[in-house]
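re: ur question from the group chat, yeah i did fold both. here u go
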Amino acid sequence: MATTKAQDPPGTSRRWAALLFIGLAQLMIVLDATVVNIALPSLQQDLGISDGDRQWIITAYTLAFGSLLLLGGRIADYTGRKRTFLVALLGFTGASALGGAAGNFELLLTARALQGGFAALLGPSALSLLTVMFTEPKDRAKAFGIWGAISAAGGGAGLLAGGALTEYLDWRWCLYINIPIALIAAIGGYALLTESRHEGRARFDIPGVLLVTGGLVAVVYGTGRAESDGWDSGKVVGLLAAGAVLLCAFIFVESRVPQPLLPLRVIASRTRGGAYLAVGMTVIGMFAAFLFLTYYMQVVKGYSPIRTGVAFLPMVTAVLVSAGGLTTRLLPRVPPRVLIVPGMLISSVGMLWILTLEPDTGYAGGVLVTQLLLGFGAGLIMPVALNYATHGVDPDDAGVASASVNTAQQIGTSLGTALLNTLAASTTADYLASHASHGSPDPDLLKQAAVEGFATAGAWAAGILVAGALLVAVLMNTPRPRQPAAAEKAGSAGGTGDGEPLLAHS
């Protein structure tokens, strides 16, 4: 039977030091999803990119990332998680250098796609290393608390970094900044990490790879095109339908092949499945808030890029307080949905608060309240969901389980941004059509129209988060923590027979 080699680096201090460098890699992945956003106007002007093409600077990254994650997870399982982690870091470094030096749109687009491809290797290998390093419940809770805080706060930190780098240096540094981070993480990982891998023969599920990659590319590309073509266009409908068919075919194939790309036992667990659902629904409902609040502060309120970045700091602080101060302490003691469901409801109130924003609303009574609610809610959700997305999985499947939760995050981000941005843009256009007189609309009307669009999108996002909370409450199993001795015994066994977390069910 296939086994996994020794997974714990020797010594507790060594494991926690290794977590620092794995966390740096995760921070880089999350930063790269948002750090370029604030730089978009500058790089668009510098490279002469059209308004219709500028979105692909973001989408090229998420498209490659989201569609290749499951393959990346399997590569990590079979070729070695440490080896994959180090190769992905070096590849990400090269792609970032290429993008920073790009002199035209095509080269920058290629570099962003390469970044996404290497991130698809890096994300699963990093999370699976964390999964096999920390198996004792108390240490695992602390480790995933740190990991969740990095994942949830990294987006806001990326906006801050993007604003500072764009304003004081150049947009190219939003890509160059990855180089020192990746090199530090690679050096530390090489010194501290212990290799682990699936010892069976590496047989890759080629039909599964083609079906899931094609399906996810169609879904992500289709949602990206909806922003410009409309959701009812033949191209968008065709792409989404093709994506759905390919993904259904993928599930069918995975239930038949002997060594599937995604063993269905990984997602069949109600606890792990609930965790994937929580991550996906959360990012669908929340990630677009970065976009809306950025445009609100820069376009409506007239903030500079650096001031906008600084204005996001309270969200980062709220995440750290919630994830590090509260979730880490409660995670080993309470069932997962006791934290996830309130977190999603608190976040939904944060999105609803966007409805109170007007062009003249003060920062303290508007954006600040939204950020604090979103940050506190995210700190309750992400560490718990990421923990239970891999908790109790067979060690041989650690990479693909990690890839599955990363896929939920990336696809949710793409879907949420496309859906909510389309709703906001449609509402803004309708408001201008009904209120504008002949000639160009005045600046105040443009600002009010933008705010109306943000409010509509915020209301829909709140509804998505509430629906997600209800689904998690109903579908997610509620394991109760075992006594320490029982938990340690289960942990040493590698998981329960049905694939559920190493906890007793209610």
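okk and heres the other one u asked abt
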Amino acid sequence: MESQTLLDELAVDAYRSALRAGVFIDERIATELGVDRARIAEARKALQGLRLLSQGGEGPAVPLDPEVVEVELIAPLEMSVARQRRQIAGIHRQLSTLSTLYRSVEHHQGTDVSIRVLDNAADVRREIDLARRRCTKERMSLQPGGGRSAHLLQSDLVQTQELLRRGVRVRTLYQHTARSSLTTRSYVAQISEAGAEVRTSAELSERLIVYDRRTAFVPKERKGSEPPGAAVVTDPTLVAYLCRSFEAAWQVGRPFTSTEPADQQQVSAELRSSILRLMAMGLKDEVIARRLGMAARTCRRYISALMTELGATSRFQAGVLLGRQAAENSAAGGVDSVTGDVQGSGANSVTGDVPGHDPAGEELAVHK
């Protein structure tokens, strides 16, 4: 009912005409509105179906009070809502008792550990749902791997908006390559309008979700095609470390929704710099693509353009040229003119490579 219009514009105009005349006469209303009589007959049937017109009988139909119709339509819906609320209250009452029992036994048995590893993806989702419902202050998340799939973002949209309505601060960090995803841009626009904060960075480490700086979710390494499990971390020292890692990455991130030319140019420069630096490290195209959250084909196009810029005819020659420039700048203690990195600084500790990282593993992409 909520996605449907009760009456079209013609039916409303016909009802208005009948109100002025006091009766609904097809031929007169068709002439007044300048439409076929058959269409007016359809409008009359629609109005009678909603009981906005009498059935007519021997005489013409007459308009009826819409407030009476409103009560008739709303009453069963209100009864259904009340019944569902009673069901929700009953479920909450019964499970609250069991939850209290579960926590007391868990604590008594000493199973309330600071790190729990869940092998089943469904168990991980349930834990994330629970953490989201309990969240009162902040959710922060790192989401590497480029753009997210439409069905995951649609699922997360409702949950993120619900967090924002409760006054929870929501911060999410994607990779720069997520900007090229239309579905991700649409999702970010909607949650940003509701108050979320979203930034991007050239490279990120693993997926990470932290609720209220108390509970963190870190995915396990993916093996095969099955969704991986995750570690649920509640140790204050470890969670604080993960929060500091997030903050370090957040500080250098660029606002996702920014339209400033300077930000756009910086994003492009950082992506280019990362590709050059990873090429200089001798990494293969597929590895570079995974690190930057882009398709291998896209990565090869970038590399081809950069090799042309370097004047290299092969990956080997490009690596030699990059290595030579890096060595020259390192000896001078300066800034690499090719990659823009300060020599001797090494890879960013937050965005360094993670063996086995798989940007396709989206079990934690639905932030919840």
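fwiw on the second one: Residues 335-363 have pLDDT under 50 and may be disordered. Residues 31 and 37 are 8 Å apart (CA to CA). idk if thats what u expected
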